[in-house]
Amino acid sequence: MTDTLDSAIVAQYLADHPHFFEEHASLLGDVRLSSPLTGRAVSLQERQMEVMRDKYRALELRLSDLSRHAQENATIANRFHGWHQAILRVRNDADLPRAVVQGLTDSFHVPAATLRLFNVAQEFAGEWFASGVSEDARLFANSLLAPYCGSNNDFEAVRWLDDADEIKSTVILPLRKPGAKGPAFGLLIMGSPDPERFTSLMATDFLVHIGESASVALAPLLA
Q1: Phi-psi region of 182 (alpha: psi -120 to 50; beta: other; left: phi over 0)
Q2: Could you say which of 62, 107, 153, 158 would form a disulfide bridge with 82 (CB–CB 3.0 to 4.6 Å)?
Q3: What is the pLDDT of residue 29?
Q4: Separation CA 13–CA 88 (nearest Å)
Q5: Which pLDDT value is given to residue 80?
Q6: What is the pLDDT of residue 16?
């Protein structure tokens, strides 16, 4: 009785002898395989073409995804640049918080945004951006080591937004002095009535940059 030949041995033999099909070229047309695409029997050559077409389609999809991501990143970068320009145009320090917030709504099309600063200089103590902050909000700001992205869990900071009752998803960014890892000196909040606008699955690289840029811009208002 003839022993059954292990398919792994056959595969290894063909890998070790790449000239096999050159020496037995007729096999390329004689060997019949079942096509997973059509279900019919096809030659080895046809099956190889199907495999190559599948790989080509997969590469096309991958290239399309890379191109889409590149376009999205370019769009965000342009919006980021426009926001920076809006902040740089401000000449009065007291107008900086409004410029930061308005720039976010204009450049990034954020439905709602606001901020609060702690321990501001005395001349700014009566401004809108320095009012209505509880000790709990300050402790919450200090606990944030990265942007919060996700559902509005009735955060005090979200209540500072206009139409806060309609906010379903939010971004909360801690503001800290450039290069500092100590207590936060404020919070920057963005919100949307769309529960899917800001989610925990979002990449936060640009949000970190927004928080850092806002912190640099607003630092002159501190005591």
Answers
A1: beta
A2: 107
A3: 62
A4: 69
A5: 86
A6: 82
CB–CB of 185/118 below 8 Å? yes
Domains of the chain: 90-221 (3.30.450.40)
Residues 6+ apart with CB under 8 A from 89: 99
d(CA 87, CA 95): 9
Which residue, chain included where needed, has tokens 């398919």? 7
Q: What is the pLDDT of residue 26?
A: 67
The label of the residue with tokens 């590149």 reads 70
The strand pairing partners of 192, in sequence order, are: 169
Residue 223 to residues 40, 130, 174, Cα–Cα distance (Å) = 79, 12, 18
- What is the token pair recorded at 85? 């320009």
